[in-house]
Every structure is written in C-alpha cells, then in structure tokens.
Amino acid sequence: MKKRTAFSGILRCLKPYAMWIALSLAAALVAAAGQLLAPFYAGRAVDCILEGAVRWEELAGDLLAIGLSSAGAAAAMWLLGVSNHHIVYGVLCDVRWMAFSKISRLPLRYLDARPYGDVANVIVADAEQFSDGLLLAFNQFFTGIFTIAGVLGVMLVMRWQVALAVFFITPLSILAARFISSRTHTSFRRQAETRAEEAAFVDEMLGDLKVVKAFCREEKNEEIFGEKNEALRRASLRAVFFSSTTNPTTRFINSLVYAAVAVLGGLSVIATAGTVAPFTAGNLMTFLSYANQYTKPFNEISEVLAEFQNALVCAGRIFSLVGEEEEPSDEGLPALGRARGEVTAEDVAFSYTPERELIKGFDLRVKPGMRVAIVGPTGCGKTTLVNLLMRFYDVDAGVLAVDGKDIRTVTRASLRENYGMVLQETWLKEGTVRENLVMGRPDCTEEEMVAAAKAAHAHSFIRLLPQGYDTVIGDEGVLSAGQKQLLCIARVMVCRPPMLILDEATSNIDTRTERLVQEAFAELMEGRTSFVVAHRLSTIENADLILVMKAGKVVEQGTHEELLAREGFYASLYRAGFSG
Fold first, then answer.
1. Most exposed among 21, 171, 462, 535, judged by the fewest C-beta atoms under 10 Å?
2. Are 40 and 154 spatial neighbours (Cβ–Cβ below 8 Å)?
3. Where are the domains of the chain?
C-alpha cells in the first residue's frame, strides 16, 4: 500500500510537467529511431562491398544515412537529457518545498514525538535519493522501451524465425529483474530507516555537544554511533547485494540472446544462399547489432527497476510526511484584537499521550494586569501550561479563554500577537541587531528601539559591537548567552504586548544585571498580565498570584506570604529550594 501511495504521489508531482514529459517522450522516440536506422544502413553498406564489385554510389548513400541517423540520435539524446533534468530537478524542488512548508502546518505534537534529524533527513537525503532514481528512470526507461519495441518489429520483418528465438529468451531477463526488484525494495526501505536513525543521533549529539563533554559521554556516544553505523553498513550491503545481482544476471541472458542470433542467423545465411530472397552477411551483421541494442535496454531497465525501488522508499517517506494531518485551520475565525489580559481556565484537561494523564480539572482566573508566578517541581506541567496559553497545543477538554473568548474560536496569529515571550533558550536570527530587535514590530522608531534596549540594559554592549546596531549576529558566535537573553528581553520591550510569558528569563544573566533587568521587567509588566515560570525567589516574591503546580494540577494559589502561612506544599518547596 505504501508503494502504491508513493507511486501515486510521484504521478501528482509530475502532472505540472506534462509538456516537458511529452517533449522527453518525443526525444526518446527520435533517439530510438536514429539508433535503429544506423545498423540497418550499415548492413546494406556491407552487402555493397561483399557482392562482387563495390557499388560506390549506394555505399555513399548508406554512409550518409548512417551519419544523419547517428547525428539525429545524438541531438535527440541531448534534448532528452535537457528535458529530463528540467523535469526531475523541478519535481525535486517542488517536493522539498511541499515537505518544508508542511512542517510549518504540522502540530507541535508531531514534531515533539520525532527526532529533528529524522525530519531533516527526509527533506534533504531522501529527496536527493528520490530525484536520482527518478532521473535514471527518465533517462533510460522510455528510450529502452522504444528501442525494444522498434528492434523487435524490424527483426520480425527481416527474419521472423530469428526474431522469435530472441522473443522467447527475453522473458528470462524480465523474470530475473522482477525477482530481484521485489527484494531490493524491502532492503532499501530498511537502509533509509537506518540512515535516518543515524542522522537523527548525529544531529542530537552535535546540538548537545557541550552536555556530552560535561558528562564525559564521548565514549558512550561513540559506542552508540558505532552500533548504528554498523546497522547501516549491514543494511546498505544487503540492499547493494540484491541490486548488484541485476546486471550480471541480465548480461548472462543477453549473451544467450546474442548467441542464438549468431547461430540461427549464420544458418539462415547458409540456407538461403542463392535463393530469391537471401539472408545476407549484411543482414546478419544488422541482426547482431540489433541483438546488442535489444538486450542493452533490458540491462538498463533492470538497473532502473532496482534503483527505482530505493526512489520509491524515499518517496514514500516524503509523501508520508506531506500526508500527515495538519494543525486545524483557523481560516475564517475572527481576530482577537488587542486583549485586556483576562485569562480564565475552566476544568481544563490535557495530556501529550492518551495513556499518560497530565493536566486534569485545571481552573484559573487571572484578572488584567496581574503578575502570575508558576512554580513546582520538574515535570509538574509548568511549560505545558505555557504551551496551552500560546495554543501550541489545544486542550483536550474544558475551556481556556482570553477576555472571555475561547482561544480556539480566534486565530492563532491574533492570540500570539498579544503575548511577548522570553524563554530560557534564546533565539536570534541571522541578521543585524536592529533586525532582531524590531522583528515583532518593524514599524517602530529608532528612538523606541534604543529606549527598549536601554531598559533591558543591552544598549551599553550593543554600542561596543563593531557596527553597533548594524552588526550582523546569529544564533552562535558573536554574543554571549547573557547578551543574547538581554536582546530577547529588549525585543519584547519593543513590542510591549498586553500579556507576557517569562520562562526563567534571567537564568543566563549575572546577579548584578539580573537586578537591573528585574527593575526593567517591573516597568514592563506594569499594567500587563504576566506569567512567570520561575525557579528562584527573586522572580516570584512580588507576584500578585502564585500557582503551585504538582503532577499537572494547581494544588495551591495565593500570594507569597499567604502560601507560606498555610505551611503546605509551597512552604516545603520554598524551604527546600528558595530559602537555602
């Protein structure tokens, strides 16, 4: 079923290139015809020489015909190559675009459940393997089919007895190719899956190389990589073994065809000598040339079938990604507009997987302008709550609302425009400092941008950069981790959204700068609803409301003083982690 799905997907991708495919077929037909004419006139030229006196006029005409047919075939092959490359690389571009654009429409649930390296491997390596197989098919399959049909037709007209011998031996080549290709598909699928696993592991290790070195995991990771590499070696050898048996098998059968033509043709020359319609030496030479032309496409087509199995496997992985269920569309829903900042949750339930319950019966009421701190042990649901607020995930049950509107009834873009986020993990795009700061609000003035940078205490180090605000930066290299985080804070200050989400936003900043940034945050949060995921006292002691989470539930709510007075879970958490 997967093979059929992949094949139908390939046909859909080829549809926009119908004109180029027609041109490719025409070029393949002309090339096959040119290759058929050259041996025919070569046989006639031989007869002009062998039959007593040389017939120079006929010989010159035959030689001219050979040259013209060969030139026509060469020109057609060049046009065939141009057409096929246009088709295949156009399809490759389309397929990669389809896969890449699909990622932006997939729910985070899909991406969180898979290694990023595996998904990247589909777009890069699998797409490349798919295009290689498709190009081989276009270059060799159609010319091979036309050549086989043309040669067989001419041979039947010239000497049907010899042609029948060729015709009856040929099915052996087809059966051998079918037997081999049925086994190569499974082998190539396993190879593609193993290669994706290895790519995902390498991507993970490179991304977390500092962690690997910190925990001295180099030898263990080398051991794991060695196992995956060995598995890929075995899978590749098995796939190559089956695919490589195609050529020698078909060559053996082709030799049988050539021998049959030589023996039967030679006997026909002897038997028909002196008759009204003799089978001449020139005819025999033409037949032997046709035997080579007839069997060569079988070699190529067998090779194409073996390689195309790999292409089908890779295409299946691509179209499997493209066919994944997308995030539900919010087209036609109204925009939220600029929110006041009231956030409510009523009996909300959510889990990443059905068998593992995470959040159940969650209730919350946050008034506009409140500062809400979210605390709790690792895995209690703090980050999950942020994902739900931003609608990166939809709730399984209950209602999560902003300003009384269920967030599922408004567009995601309008909801997210009302939030400013500063997370533990910073993100900066490749560009200037200026471009990074105004990313969320391109129309802001120079004065507003500089004021936001000063408020975030980023202006001082920005001025020391080689080109100041016009210095090109990226996610790595130019800035320290603390400076990156200050830029992210400044970026939010430029936008000044009505609601904020701060996930341990000062974790990479030294104590002195943190105090200054806290003052900036206090000014930024003034009059804005703020959710602060915190692990330290300095970020929660002034909160209007503290949500204490445990096992996906809010077990306590209140101010810092109220919760300490209750001597409950928050008090034990505070004494264990915050008070020292």
1. 171
2. yes
3. 2-322, 343-578
Nearest to 546 by CA among 537, 536, 564, 559: 559
- Mean pLDDT, range 508-526, rounded to an integer: 69
Mean pLDDT of 22-37: 85
Parallel, antiparallel, or unpaired: how do β-strands 499-503 and 472-473 relate?
unpaired
Amino acid at the residue 336: L
CB 543 within 8 A of CB 368: no
What secondary structure letter does DSSP report for 558? E
Task: Work out the pLDDT band at 424, boundaries 50, 70, 90.
Answer: confident
What CATH class does 2-322 carry? Answer: mainly alpha
Alpha carbon distances (Å) from 32 to 66, 80, 210, 290, 428: 14, 11, 60, 12, 57
List, in order, residues 6 or more apart from 377 with CB less than 8 Å away. Answer: 550, 573
pLDDT of residue 438 exceeding 50: yes
Rounded to whole angstroms, how far apart are CA atoms 271 and 268?
A: 5
Look up residue 82 and give its two tokens: 């141009």
Indicate whether 537 pLDDT > 70: no
DSSP state of 47: H
CATH T-level topology, domain 343-578: Rossmann fold (3.40.50)
What burial class does residue 539 get, using C-beta atoms within 10 Å of its C-beta: 0-12 exposed, 13-18 middle, 19+ buried?
buried
According to the model, what pLDDT value does residue 213 have? 78
Q: How far is CA 419 from CA 416, 489, 502, in A?
A: 5, 13, 10
H-only helix segments in 456-568? 459-463, 481-495, 511-525, 560-566
The SS3 of residue 442 is: coil
The pLDDT confidence band at residue 401, using thresholds 50, 70 and 90, is very high
